[in-house]
Amino acid sequence: MDARWMVRGFAPLGMSMLACLPAQAQDAESIARIERGLRPAVAIQGAKLETRTLAAEMARLNVPGVSVAVIRGGKIAWAKGYGVTHANGAPVTPQTLFQAASISKPVAAMAALKMVEAGQLEFDADINTVLTSWKLPPGPAKRPATLRQLLSHTAGTTVSGFRGYAAGAQVPTLLQVLDGAAPANSGPIRIEGMPGDAWNYSGGGYTVVQQAMIDRSGRPFDALMEETVLKPLGMSDSSFAQPLPGALLARAALPHSENGKPTAGGAHTYPELAAAGMWTTPTDLAKFALALQRGAGGADGVLSPTMTRTMLRPVMNNYALGLHIDGKAPQHAFSHGGSNMGYQNTLYAYVARGDGAVVMTNGDGGAQLAQSVIRAIAAEYRWPSYQTVMRKAIALPAATRAKLAGRYEIKDLGGFEIAEREGKLMVALRENQWEPLYAESARKLFVLSRELELHMENQGGRLVSGSFNVAFKRVR
């Protein structure tokens, strides 16, 4: 989660372009229905389910560009771009590059598991037996962290996510990031919990894995990823180079704030490559998803079928090795979201059905948009999940609503605000982006834009969304 949580000059949707694989007539009809059938994550029982058009949602959420790839029947059915790379810029096409943000994690995890199969890494050994240029200091219990724990966010390591480095800012080395030393803008990566005992999302843990992979292979991380995953899977439009080389930058969608304003200087640089550093397209991520589907079905690829199934087996909190697992076999799916400065993305694909989708955006308001697009895809193709959830809502007494109003903070991730506005209880999960807040009970609140609940306790509570479960405290 990133708690930063009609723009003039943007081209109309009519300037979108289809992928090189032409859509069949039935695909074109489906695409048209999807484009006008975006729907909320949650709806109130008894109320009419309202849908919106993709064009209207891009304008409402200030997202200049969107790229989509859809998997059907075990292959990429269609891909399409919408909007522009930046104000007055080129149209988004299926070949336009976006920062994958945290969707980098499962791709990096696949490379790490490839090294396990090659005997270069071990699942359950102390990660310090691999690290040579740096060591992960022991935590309070002196229990070592392992690769399996680091990949599944159960190692007890710190630093949830990274902010990146703006144009002109000094970029730290990976060792400086690991120790939180200047000019790093994140804290030191350390073990603060009991490894193996709890799930706590940690981009820091993936940065430790990145250093371990470099130390053991003796290769730069971007070159290692190219050799082990990107090239074998035909992900020719993907790179872990940070910053993006100038020759590729011309093909990149540039980042925008939640207000639709371009990020000064363009995309931030992320030296935390395994956690957040990949540049890619939805089509290339669809190739990655297809490789997992084929491997789970018994085909050899970058990973053996046995290792692919291990990668997709939940460890804790429905999170496997680099991927969230949704539902139960045979209808289970794997997914991951991505949130870098000015980019919001979602990957979702079924393990056994041969279906899925990837949506990438170049706006901070794009998370809600990406989710809505995938729900429209799910409705069109009758997926067994990712449908709008119908919920009952109750009216809260005025005194209860007044007590809930305030500012709340999540450690290392920023915060949100609850207030009464225009006679309604509202929440701003992102700065100044207000939406109605509904109640299932006095202690369980929810919104319609995403499957997210606020479990309220005295002076705080927990924010729950899928595998994401973090505490928050009232600060005023």
Radius of gyration: 21 Å
The fold-level CATH name of the largest domain is Beta-lactamase
How much of the polypeptide forms β-strand, as a percent range?
A: 15-25%
Mean pLDDT: 93
Q: Into how many domains do the coordinates divide? A: 2
* Coarse morphology: globular
Largest sheet: 9 strands, antiparallel
For this structure, what is the CATH class of the largest domain?
A: Alpha Beta
Structure write-up:
The chain is α+β, with helices and mostly antiparallel strands. It has 2 domains: 99-380, DD-peptidase/beta-lactamase superfamily (Beta-lactamase, 3-Layer(aba) Sandwich); 394-474, Lipocalin (Beta Barrel). It contains 13 helices and 20 strands. It has helices at residues 25-35, 54-60, 104-117, 147-151, 174-179, 203-217, 221-230, 246-249, 273-276, 282-296, 305-311, 366-380, 398-404; strands at 17-18, 42-44, 65-72, 75-83, 98-99, 279-280, 324-326, 333-340, 343-350, 356-361, 389-391, 406-410, 414-421, 424-430, 433-436, 438-439, 444-446, 453-457, 460-465, 468-474. The chain has a 9-stranded antiparallel beta sheet with strand order 15-14-13-12-20-19-18-17-16, with helices on one face. The chain has a 7-stranded antiparallel beta sheet with strand order 1-4-3-10-9-8-7, sandwiched between helices. Helix 1 (25-35) packs across helix 12, helix 3 (104-117) runs parallel beside helix 6 (203-217) and helix 3 crosses helix 7. The longest helix is centred in the middle third of the chain and has 15 residues, at 203-217. It is globular and about 60 Å long. The two termini are 22 Å apart.
